[in-house]
Amino acid sequence: MEYLEGLFSLSLLMAALVALPSGIIQGYAGFGGALVAVPFFAILFDPVSGFAIILIVVLFGQGAHFLNAIQRVEWVEVGPVATASALTMTIGIFFLVTTDPMFIRKCMGIIIFVITFLMAINWNYTGKRGLVSKLFTGGFSGAITGGFGVPGFPLQVMFFHNSSSTAEIKRLNVLAALACGLAVAITGLFFQNIYNQDMLLRAGIIAPTFILGVKLGEYIFKIAPVNWFKKVTYFILFLTSIMLLVT
What we know:
The protein contains 11 helices and no strands. The protein has 247 residues and is mainly alpha-helical.
């Protein structure tokens, strides 16, 4: 009992509160929830711990969707992206866990600002969709994710959304790529001895709020105008990126 009492803190409570809107964004768009949560978690805990916790939380929150996506995914699209991402993410994690946390936080702020700007102007990849472009997309986004603890999956989304697949298949491709990335990142952090009992318990405490948010996001997806929801999301992301730069 004393151990559990020591585990609870204001930071943990605030992280659980942040997980709700993050889950809503994840449920609504199929991605982006971690991108919203990571900067807050980096401030409440530290960049590496915040990144490690949100990975477990998202895995809990989207596990069933990931299994469904992996069974129906277009592996010719996702495979090269996920493979390249796994390689660079694994290398990047070595950098993340050994670099000054303050430097990582500043880099997080810059990267989140740039990614949000690209999403806000509705930028999508319009070049050729060959093997080279797939490997580059996966490698670049994986390096960002592993090296700086910033989910680079929105960059993969911009690539997948330019394919000729149906909207449903595009969403499944995004979820499958995210699932692969989560598995690699969690494994990499595990081998770096980042995870411990306290961290896993914190993730377990935060996860229910995130899952509730995901369910709300899926409901809002059916009734809310896309443009309205996007504007709110972008505002939150711009705000969090600035917070990381000035704190």
